[in-house]
Write a structure and sequence with these properties.
The protein is of the alpha/beta class. The chain folds into three domains: 3-47, no CATH class; 56-169 and 302-330, Rossmann fold; 171-301, Response regulator (Rossmann fold, 3-Layer(aba) Sandwich), CATH 3.40.50. The protein is built from 13 helices and twelve strands. The chain has a six-stranded parallel beta sheet with strand order 2-1-3-4-5-11, with helices on both faces. Strand 1 (61-66), helix 5 (74-87) and strand 2 form a beta-alpha-beta unit.
C-alpha cells in the first residue's frame, strides 16, 4: 500500500495525504483529513520513516537507548516516551544495552561500556534519528558518558554538565515531607534506613530528612539511622540494629521498597505488627510493594511522566534548537497503603 493508493481511495492528491501524515492539518479541511485517517487506519498503512529520512534532513524518529530494559522502572519510562512521541508525529527506535547483569550494583562501572554505547549510538544515527534519549537504570551522575552532536536527553540519571538536558525526580523534597509528617506525629520515635553512603539519590533523600529535623529543632538519634545497600537483607539488618538499640520506634522510613520489606520482615520476627506497632514507608512504588502483606506505603516516582517530559524536551530541542530549562525535576507523591496509615 502506497501514498498513491491511499490518495486514490480518498479521492484526493498524494500531496493532500502527505499533509495529513505529517500533521499539517491547516492545509486540509477537517472532513478530508478525517476521511484520510479513516482509510489509513482501515488498511493499517505504515509510513516508511527511514525512506522519509533519506528524502529530507528530518526523519521524525527518536532513538531511545536503555541501560537495561528489564530493570523495573525502565519500561514505564519508555512507554511515556513512546506515547508522547507518537502523539506528536514521531516514531521511536529502541536500543537496549542489556547491562544489568554486567554492572549489577556497581553503577559507576557504566564507563567501562562507553565503547558499547558509542556503537549503539552509531547504529541509531545510521537510521537518521533526530535525537536520542538515554534512560539510566539507576539515578546517578553519568557526566561525560555520551559524546554526540545530535540532540540528547538523559532520563532517570543526572549529569553535572550544565549544558546537558536531564529529566529526573525530586528525591529531597518528598523525603523532607515524609520526615516532617512522621516528626509531627511521633517526634523522636522514628527511624531512617538510608541507602549506600556513596549513592547520589540516597544522599539527596537523606538531605531532605536532615532538613526536616533541623526545621523541627530535633536532633537525629544516630542509633535510629542506619544504612543499607538497597537490597532486602540490608533492610533486615538495618531494622535489627534499630530495634536492638533499645529506643522506642513508631515508624521507619526506608529509602527503597526492598529495604522497607526487609524491615517489615524483621519487625515481625521481633513479634511486632505492621502498622499497629511500627509503621513502615518505602520509596519507589515498585512491584515488590504492590503484593506485600501488608501492602507497602511508599513514594511513587512519576516514571511515565519522566518519559513524556524527556520526549517533550528532546522534540523541543530538535525542532527549535534550544531549551529554556535543561534540568527538569518532577514531584514525587506518597502512595498510602497498609504498612503506614496517617489515621490508625
Amino acid at each position: 500500500m502506497t501514498l498513491k493508493d491511499i490518495a486514490g481511495m480518498a479521492g484526493v492528491s498524494v500531496a493532500t495525504v502527505s499533509h495529513v501524515l505529517n500533521h499539517r492539518d491547516n492545509k486540509v479541511s477537517p472532513e478530508v483529513a478525517a476521511r484520510i485517517r479513516s482509510i489509513i487506519k482501515e488498511v493499517n498503512y505504515q509510513p516508511n520513516t527511514v525512506a522519509k529520512a533519506l528524502r529530507s534532513s528530518k526523519s521524525s524518529i527518536i532513538g531511545v537507548m536503555t541501560e537495561d530494559l528489564s530493570v523495573w522502572q525502565t519500561g514505564s519510562i519508555v512507554q511515556g516516551v513512546t506515547h508522547y512521541a507518537q502523539q506528536n508525529g514521531y516514531s521511536v527506535i529502541l536500543s537496549d544495552l542489556g547491562l544489568k547483569d554486567k554492572i549489577k550494583t556497581d553503577y559507576d562501572s557504566i564507563y567501562k561500556y562507553r565503547g558499547v554505547i558509542s556503537k549503539e549510538l552509531q547504529r541509531l544515527q545510521a537510521v537518521r534519528v533526530d535525537g536520542v534519549i538515554f534512560v539510566g537504570m539507576h539515578d546517578r551522575d553519568v557526566k561525560g558518558l555520551i559524546e554526540t552532536d545530535i540532540p540528547l536527553v538523559y532520563a532517570y540519571c543526572t549529569t553535572e554538565n550544565a549544558d546537558d538536558v536531564q529529566v529526573g525526580y525530586d528525591n529531597r523534597e518528598i523525603s523532607k515531607k515524609i520526615t516532617q509528617m512522621l516528626l509531627t506525629r511521633y517526634g523522636e520515635q522514628i527511624a531512617i534506613i538510608g541507602g549506600p553512603i556513596q549513592s547520589a539519590p540516597a544522599g539527596q533523600r537523606m538531605a531532605g530528612v536532615e532538613e526536616a529535623y533541623a526545621e523541627a529543632g530535633i536532633s537525629m538519634n544516630l542509633k535510629l539511622r542506619q544504612n543499607g545497600n538497597w537490597e532486602f537483607e540490608s533492610g533486615v539488618q538495618a531494622c535489627r540494629d534499630i530495634l536492638k538499640s533499645g529506643y522506642p520506634v513508631k515508624a521507619i522510613y526506608a529509602m527503597n521498597d526492598l529495604m522497607a520489606l526487609g524491615a517489615i520482615r524483621q519487625i515481625r520476627d521481633f513479634g511486632l505488627q505492621v502498622p499497629d506497632d511500627i509503621g513502615v514507608i518505602g520509596f519507589d512504588d515498585s512491584e515488590y510493594g504492590w503484593f506485600s502483606n501488608p501492602a507497602l506505603t511508599t513514594v511513587h516516582v512519576p516514571l511515565d511522566e519522566i518519559g513524556r517530559e524527556s520526549a517533550a524536551a528532546l522534540i523541543t530541542k530538535i525542532e527549535h534548537g534550544v531549551l529554556e530549562k535543561k534540568r527538569i525535576l518532577l514531584e514525587c507523591t506518597l502512595v498510602e497503603r497498609e504498612s503506614y496509615r496517617r489515621k490508625q
